[in-house]
Design brief:
With 171 residues, the protein is of the alpha/beta class. The protein contains 5 helices and 6 strands; from the N terminus they run ββββααβααβα. The strands form 2 sheets. It has a 4-stranded mixed sheet, with helices on one face. Strands 5-6 form a two-stranded parallel sheet. Helix 2 packs across helix 3 and helix 3 crosses helix 4. The longest helix has 19 residues. It starts with a strand and ends with a helix.
Length: 171
């Protein structure tokens, strides 16, 4: 299976997007932790219809629109990490949740106990930034803890979503 790469210039910095023949497998802020992790096969820098759709979605997101991901996502990771990534998809736009609440959701969904720290470790390995919204997970005290793209980027993404919601509510 081939892997295709494209680059996106966001207001917060360069983003690299990776897809295979059927799904998005990576969206990374260039230089972030775990940047291009698990891309060990040759990659072709070519614009595919799927990569074009991701870019259109990112354009909408950075223009303050609530986005719907209508294309397949296939994040690499362990079974546990993928289960946590699935929980992240349920965090609504403009809202946050804590690592502890995700641990509770994990138990309710999968019937296995896990710790907020283990959730945090899985979240930090999310290879599909923004589209799988790991930036919406915060510390129990409301702090903006850990984000592979950096705390300033996390804060900017949350501020973008909050500003978008304010503009929606004032109309």
């Amino acid at each position: 299976m081939s892997t295709y790469l494209s680059h996106y210039c966001s207001p917060l910095g360069e983003i690299t997007i990776a897809a295979d023949d059927s799904a998005v497998i990576g969206v990374w802020f260039d230089g972030q932790a775990y940047f291009k992790a698990d891309l060990n096969e040759p990659c072709e820098e070519i614009m595919t219809p799927l990569l074009s759709e991701v870019i259109t979605t990112l354009d909408a997101y950075f223009n303050g629109e609530q986005i719907e991901v209508n294309f397949p996502l296939h994040p690499h990771g362990t079974t546990y990490q993928k289960e946590v990534f699935a929980l992240l998809l349920n965090i609504p736009y403009g809202e946050t949740c804590t690592y502890g609440s995700l641990a509770e959701q994990y138990f309710n969904m999968y019937g296995r106990r896990t710790s907020p720290r283990a959730i945090g470790s899985a979240v930090s390995h999310n290879p599909i930034s923004i589209l799988i919204p790991c930036h919406r997970v915060i510390g129990a005290n409301g702090s903006l803890t850990g984000y592979a793209g950096g705390i300033k980027t996390k804060e900017a993404l949350l501020n973008l979503e909050a500003a978008s919601l304010k503009n929606t509510h004032s109309n």
